[in-house]
Write a structure and sequence with these properties.
With 378 residues, the protein is α+β, with helices and mostly antiparallel strands. 28% of the residues lie in helices and 37% in strands. It has six helices and 24 strands.
Length: 378
């Protein structure tokens, strides 16, 4: 009898265990949701997402270059042998400074031709005056006067042609006048700077025979330089002359210079599929050197976009996040994609609806509170 009662009790317990419902699982904890204490709530400021005109920043690689309007390639005006060099690489020079001197037989022959033409012109001029006197005395006829007058006109034309040839060879009117007074021939021709600046290239040595087609010196005014960059073909629609640009130069510790685009190319480079753009930068301190690498930041036309204050952004796992108001004193951390900071604002590229309310002040402290609770397990 006792054994039967014990068996009945065990059977009842087994049935009861099978019919008992399993315990409810613990509610999952959202690690991105935080309920801050009252002391922290007082430091938090929430604002709706706004809209504002935002200009995208286009970053393109470029380089420093000479301002081609401030560069002069200087050569000799005559064929000759260099006898003296007056300027070296890096020397500052002024317009009119003598860079080199050379001896030229061509210049000597041209001066001799001019002196002969000048003497012939004077001789025929005196012959015309004498013919007028003889005609007045009825010694010669008018035909003789006319013949001598024609000879004088031809001699004057030859003198002018010889003088023009000397001017082409670099002889000024003052030098012509001195040569006329002295009657001597000077075969030394100077190579003269046509621009004030710095000698950035010298391609001549003493004793070298040079031609007028040879570029002997390059002088550049580096007080203003160009920055040239290549814009990808797909971005050209956002670029136009007159836009503001910022130039960063890595060699100068990423120092920034500002300017405006002065030129946008009209053709696409078929090899690189890019279009050349150019700006000019003041360089009075001459810290910018031609051929330096640079990055050009081009500010495109403004477009209306969602924006959040830069202080609202929280950097987490190398990505941008913001806190949105989840209601009932709670805030949720959401991942977003933001543009670069401009005037204290960042454009929202994705991740936020237009009606969202974000934490604009206190986001950093709110994120610390979230991390603290996550470490404590809830």
């Amino acid at each position: 009898m006792k054994r039967l009662s014990l068996l009945a009790i065990l059977s009842f317990l087994l049935v009861a265990c099978k019919e008992a419902p399993p315990p409810a699982p613990a509610a999952a904890i959202d690690p991105n949701l935080v309920t801050p204490p009252l002391t922290l709530v007082q430091q938090i400021k929430v604002e709706p997402v706004g809209k504002a005109p935002v200009a995208d920043i286009l970053r393109v690689a470029g380089r420093i270059d000479f301002d081609e309007q401030r560069v002069a390639r200087i050569g000799a005006t005559v064929t000759g042998r260099v006898t003296e060099l007056m300027a070296n690489l890096g020397d500052p020079v002024k317009a009119g400074s003598v860079l080199a001197k050379l001896h030229s037989t061509e210049l000597g022959n041209a001066q001799l031709s001019w002196l002969k033409a000048r003497a012939q012109s004077e001789l025929t001029g005196r012959a015309v005056d004498r013919a007028r006197q003889l005609l007045a005395a009825d010694v010669i006829g008018s035909a003789e006067l006319q013949r001598r007058d024609n000879e004088h006109s031809v001699a004057q034309a030859e003198q002018r042609a010889a003088a023009d040839q000397l001017r082409v060879l670099g002889i000024s009117d003052d030098m012509l006048e001195k040569a006329a007074q002295s009657g001597g021939i000077n075969s030394i021709s100077p190579v003269v700077a046509t621009l004030s600046g710095v000698v950035v290239e010298r391609k001549v040595a003493k004793g070298q025979v040079v031609q007028p087609a040879d570029a002997l010196f390059t002088v550049a005014d580096l007080s203003r330089v160009w920055v040239i960059a290549q814009v990808p073909e797909g971005e050209v629609m956002h670029v136009q002359a007159g836009q503001s640009v910022v130039v960063e130069v890595p060699a100068l510790g990423h120092g920034k210079r500002t300017g405006k685009l002065i030129y946008v190319g009209d053709i696409v480079n078929p090899d690189t599929r890019t279009v050349m753009v150019r700006t000019e930068i003041e360089n009075q301190d001459r810290t910018l050197k031609p051929a330096m690498l640079a990055t050009m930041l081009i500010k495109a036309r403004p477009v209306e976009r969602l924006v959040v204050p830069a202080a609202a952004a929280v950097r987490e796992d190398n990505e941008d996040h913001v806190f949105i108001d989840a209601g009932e004193g709670r805030f949720r951390l959401v991942k977003v994609k933001l543009g670069p900071e401009q005037e204290g604002r960042r454009a929202v590229l994705s991740g936020l609806p237009e009606d969202a309310k974000v934490v604009t002040d206190g986001a950093f402290h709110l994120n610390n509170e979230r991390k603290r609770k996550e470490l404590e397990g809830g």
